[in-house]
Amino acid sequence: MKRGSLKGCLLADCVSFTVAALISSILVVVTPDRMFHMTPNYYLELFVVTTFVNVLMLLTMRLPIDCMPVNMLIDLLDVAVGVLGLGGGIFHWFGWRLGYVVEAVTLLTVVYFVTYGLMIWQNRELARQINRHILQCKCGKKHAAEKQQQ
Question: Could you give the CA distance from residue 118 to residue 115 in angstroms, rounded to a whole number?
Answer without folding.
Answer: 5
